[in-house]
Design a protein that fits this description.
- With 127 residues, the protein is mainly β.
- It is built from no helices and 11 strands.
- Strands 1-2-3-10-5-8 form a 6-stranded antiparallel sheet, with no helix packed on it. Strands 7-6-9 form a 3-stranded antiparallel sheet, with no helix packed on it. It has a two-stranded antiparallel ribbon with strand order 4-11.
- It starts with 11 loop residues before the first strand and ends with a strand.
């Protein structure tokens, strides 16, 4: 058993952000090394501060699932846009450009699950 207490973790900039001035932050709950098999690559606790958007990007070999825990966002995936709020989730398939914007007056907290479609790939920033 591995227990992770979020209160004991520090937020760090998301890997697809400007590391000196990030728009979105994460706490790494579990890395691929912690998980059995080759599918799940990471599980992160993420924070998108009020008024921020993360950089548009895609992943070469990884699907992502975002589960919104509080707040309201607009997510854009491959040119399609949807509003997400507490209790909603979205699956973003491999290689689709995506971006999320906080559209409420509080930090948006969400869980990110990355699921590999094969070998390690990189994150590609497009803006």
């Amino acid at each position: 058993m591995i227990i992770v207490k979020s209160k004991d973790l520090n937020y760090i900039p998301a890997s697809h952000e400007d590391q000196q001035n990030p728009e979105v932050w994460k706490k790494i709950l579990f890395r691929k090394e912690d998980l059995a098999g080759d599918g799940v690559r990471m599980i992160n606790w993420a924070k998108l501060p009020k008024g921020n958007s993360f950089k548009a990007h895609y992943h070469e070999n990884m699907d992502e699932i975002y589960i919104i825990l509080n707040g309201k966002t607009i997510v854009k995936v491959a040119g399609e846009e949807a509003e997400l709020e507490k209790g909603d989730a979205v699956l973003i398939p491999t290689k689709l450009i995506h971006k999320m914007t906080n559209v409420c007056n509080e930090d948006v907290i969400y869980i990110v699950v990355g699921i590999s479609r094969g070998r390690d790939g990189k994150t590609v920033i497009v803006e």
